Amino acid sequence: MDHLLRNRDREVPVKEIAEIYSLKRNTISNAIRELELKGKIILDRQRKKGQFTHMRLAGEKTSETRSSSELDKSEVIKDFEHLNLIKNNFKDSIEYLTSTKFNHVDFRKKTDDLELNSFDFIVNYVTPLMRQVGVLWEENSLSTGEEHIITERMEKLVVELINERNNKQGELVLLAPVENEYHTLALLSLELIFTDHNAKVINLGKPIPVEFFIRYIHETELPRWVFLSMTLPMYRGTLKRELKSLRDSFGDKIKIAIGGQGLSNKDKSKFPEADKIIITSEDLKYFFQKVFNNN
């Protein structure tokens, strides 16, 4: 199905799928017949002794029957195949981001042409892609070097978008990772989303001891929100300590949100000092729609 989704503008030869995924004819035939029975695909049996040789997604027009405007859109989707926003299959993106063919200017242009707002770009592309990168790294399917290359290239893109979109006219928001947490892409992604909400964002980026963080706040400006990020579960204790220190120092004068991949739903009752705990994309959406804009 993923292959058909990526090639929805044409009929796909059965032979092509068999060769790409190294499948035997009997294996692929059974899978295809099941998809046909479920009404997900349409088969072409008019060639080669009545056997099906080509298929396409049900409800999709092929290139022979599409209008010129539809063809233009199809070409755009095909051109962005390495972004592959469809069905969260990021194999093409990962291969492109690690390849010697990667070109930052071209990559930036393609992402711009998608015309996604910051939230959709982060939630529907950056976050799930990087999660898949993490899974592949844990499975040793990606080397540490490849993981670093992908992260660096995504960070560069997000930083560019931040610099262009951050008008710094709204209320102050401070972003910081917990001490010893050196993953920065999550906070950069959050900073980008804040730019769509007219926030003045200061992203500390690198971890510092909470005592210095508190001193920084005292010496500068009281923020509307402080957001602490934790990517690795091993830092739960550090997050709890820093959260308590901030609350003891500022009381209810500031609002504090926490989030990151290191947290799960079972942690929501373990951090009572936090005003908001953001774990899922729905949590993040609710935060910006109902909480941040209404406080």
Describe the protein's architecture and organization.
- By secondary structure, this protein is an alpha/beta fold.
- It has 3 domains: 2-62, Winged helix-like DNA-binding domain superfamily/Winged helix DNA-binding domain (Arc Repressor Mutant, subunit A, Orthogonal Bundle); 80-160; 166-294, Cobalamin-binding domain (Rossmann fold, 3-Layer(aba) Sandwich), CATH 3.40.50.280.
- Helices cover 49% and strands 11% of the residues.
- It is built from 12 helices and 8 strands.
- Strand 4, helix 9 (185-195) and strand 5 form a beta-alpha-beta unit.
- It is elongated and about 70 Å long.
- The chain starts with a helix and ends with a helix.
Number of domains: 3
The Rg value, from CA coordinates, equals: 23 Å
CATH class of the largest domain: Alpha Beta
**Content-based structural category:** alpha/beta
Helix-strand pattern, N to C? HEHHEEHHHHHEHEHEHEEH
- Distinct helical segment count: 12
Molecular shape: elongated
Please indicate the percent range of residues in DSSP E strands (runs of 2 or more).
5-15%
Q: Strand order, biggest sheet?
A: 5-4-6-7-8
- Low-confidence region ranges: 45-50, 61-82, 84-88
